[in-house]
Amino acid sequence: MVSPDDGDEDNTEKAGWGGGGHFASCIISVDAVRSASALRRLDILKFFKKVEIPPRRDGGKVTRDEIYSDFGHGVRWGRRDMVQAASNKHQEVIWWLYRNTRAPRAMKSVLMVAVYNGDIVLLEWFRAKYRTQGLDPDSEDEDYEVGEEKL
Predict the structure, then answer these.
(1) What does the pLDDT read at residue 105?
(2) Sign of CA dihedral 119, 125, 131, 137
(3) Tally of structural domains, the chain
(4) Is 120 helix (H, G, I), strand (E, B) or coil?
(5) DSSP SS3 for 31
(6) Is 75 domain-assigned?
(7) DSSP codes of every residue in 88-116
(8) pTM metric for this prediction
(9) Mean pLDDT of all residues in the chain?
(10) Which of 23, 52, 66, 143 has the fewest CB atoms within 10 Å, i.e. is most exposed?
(11) pLDDT surpasses 50 at 9
(12) Which positions ≥6 away from 53 have C-beta within 8 Å?
């Protein structure tokens, strides 16, 4: 079986991930992303990013036509993937997800996990990143998270 770690060459085509092949029209689930985040598998997350259909300019989800026309794969980033990484103190995964994927995040939950774990490095990152921005103005509203616009 071909894996993304075999040598320096690009094996996505050989494995059938690069368009067509066994994995054509595959949607990489939020559970797969969360599991990779929890296990500190940055290599897998980067692989998912590499085979992902590029994000739409309007911020919309990947369409069925895009998935079925072999442009790549839909990847379901978001919400709790950073929480899974924070639960296991995987700061490099948290930062990579934050910088490289566009998705709504449960940032309040990430902060709470950092407090619970005593993760000073992650707490310092929050302090530097959100110094002038308050966190959740309504702590009872679970749907409102840092970075989301509330109408």
Answers:
(1) 87
(2) negative
(3) 1
(4) helix
(5) helix
(6) yes
(7) TT-HHHHHHHHHH----B-HHHHHHHHHH
(8) 0.67
(9) 75
(10) 143
(11) no
(12) 62, 66, 67, 71, 72, 73, 74, 75
Question: Which of 22-34 are b and which e, b meaning 16 or more Cβ less than 10 Å from the residue's Cβ?
Answer: eebebebebebbb
Indicate the angle between helix axes 42-51 and 30-38, nearest 10 degrees.
Answer: 150
What's the CA gap between 141 and 47, in Å, rounded?
34
Whether 3 is in a domain gets the answer no
Specify the amino acid at residue 151: L
Q: How many helices (H) and strands (E) does the chain have?
A: 8, 2
Q: How many residues does the chain have?
A: 151
CA end-to-end span of the chain: 49
Domain range for 98 is: 12-129
Distance CA 76, CA 66 (A): 15
Tell whether 19 is covered by a domain: yes
Is 124's pLDDT higher than 90? yes
Cα–Cα distance for residue pair 45/48, rounded to 1 Å? 5
